[in-house]
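Bit of a strange request maybe. I'm writing a small parser for structure token strings and I need a real example to test against, not something I typed by hand. Could someone generate the tokens for this chain?
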Amino acid sequence: MNSWHLLRAIVLLRSRTALTYRLDLPGSAIAILISCLMFYGIDRIGFAPSSSLPGDYFAFVLVGLATNGLLLGLLHQSAMAASQAEQEGVLAFLWLSGRPTLPHYLLLSLLPAAALRIGELLLFALIGALFGARLPLADWPTAGVVLLLSLWMFAAFGLISAAAQLWLKRHNPLQTLLFGGVAAVLAGTYFPVAVLPESLQLISRLLPITYTLEGLRAALLTGGDWHDPSVRLALAAIAAAALLFSLCGLWLLRLAEERVRREGSLRLFD
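Reply from user aminoacidic:
Good idea to test on real output. This should exercise your parser:
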């Protein structure tokens, strides 16, 4: 059995293990239903800042919640995969065999989590439709490109998180700063960035997920296409961040591997 076959077997084992957690998807469905009920009520009561919204508030916030759930879930899985690789001896095997590399393993390890997150995305769409959310102007091809670029960006940042896991022996603090709960609020998950004070709007412009949400909402809620300035800005910012994260992630992973080899610090995770 060559290295690639063994790696595929490991990923399949993780996928089957994930399937044994039968309450994950029902639990997610309940959480999604509660979120939809809450924000549907906010929309109906009229508490939402409608003057600055691209479309109705309920559809606006559903796009934010669904996108956050998908991308942050994959980001969290990248760090977990690095920890599991160290604890279960996969990391040592990858180093000894030389092929496949740790980045290959981390990207393949995202597949089980991706299946669950896509299921949650579909649940958001189904429950949102049941509550009356509609996207009559949606430009689906443009939204698909924004989402694919965003997946690349988050997968690339996942490499940085994995390197931090190896280097610091704990979760990447930068992940919390750029993609944590406060960042999700500042990025416009629950309300438009335009309603924030100007000082906080400047901070939101430094958060990569801000451009993902703005690009997706422009495409889905207002029918923005390639000629829409907000879509073009979002695509440019996401592509630049994805490229930067990819280069930094690969470099930091190599440094982390060299340090762990030199110090012999495997199996020391908190």
